[in-house]
Write a structure and sequence with these properties.
The protein is an all-alpha fold. It contains 12 helices and no strands. It is elongated.
Length: 208
């Protein structure tokens, strides 16, 4: 059963990413898998249940990414940007959620509640990461806390909406999209870097 449910989620993710949740129904997903509508409903009653399951997958992937970043403490700006790029890759993988986030939360209201519950722990995790990079003389120590917190808001805005910008402006795909926008995201931090951090950032940019 678990394998079948995983196949259903994978097929749904593919179709949602390609065509959107307003087009794809549970019948489309069943057809993609060449199974009956009734067989699919044995595992998931409707497409909203599948959307919730995919959001749960996204949540797990985000948590794993953050735990990895915290357990492998970044010591250079390149390390930091590598973690950021991995995070952008997760967003790309589940891109329909972000491209249609308002519609997703209207259809499955619990997703909005869960998403909002991320704010406090994510803020604390990112501030700890900033502090770690300050200790490595990568980030400046003369920046007030409220400026760091304001930067976090800028980060969240870009993370939530870079896919929409790409869809309208550039239409980059896969790794090219992830690489391009994660590099722009990393550029947000340039004013907050020490001379050592800026040298690392410049070297990282040159390596690209």
């Amino acid at each position: 059963m678990t394998d079948t449910k995983a196949k259903i989620r994978a097929a749904a993710l593919k179709l949602f990413n390609e065509q959107g949740i307003d087009v794809i129904t549970i019948r489309h997903i069943a057809k993609e898998l060449d199974i009956s509508h009734g067989n699919l409903q044995y595992h998931y009653k409707n497409s909203n249940d599948i959307i919730q399951a995919l959001f749960d997958e996204l949540t797990s992937a985000v948590n794993n990414n953050v735990q990895h970043a915290e357990s492998h403490t970044a010591t250079t700006f390149a390390d930091f940007c590598a973690e950021i790029e991995a995070f952008f890759g997760i967003i790309w993988h589940y891109r329909f959620i972000f491209l249609q986030f308002i519609e997703v939360t209207r259809r499955v209201p619990g997703i909005k509640t869960t998403y909002n519950s991320w704010d406090q722990p994510r803020q604390q995790q990112m501030l700890r990461l900033f502090h770690s990079l300050q200790q490595q003389d990568v980030f400046r120590t003369d920046i007030p806390d409220h400026i760091w917190k304001g930067l976090l808001t800028q980060m969240y805005i870009m993370l939530d909406f870079w896919l929409s910008h790409n869809e309208i402006k550039l239409n980059l795909k896969g790794k090219k999209a992830v690489r391009h926008y994660s590099r722009i995201f990393c550029n947000l931090f340039y004013p907050y870097l020490t001379p050592k951090g800026r040298e690392q950032a410049d070297n990282n940019q040159a390596a690209d």
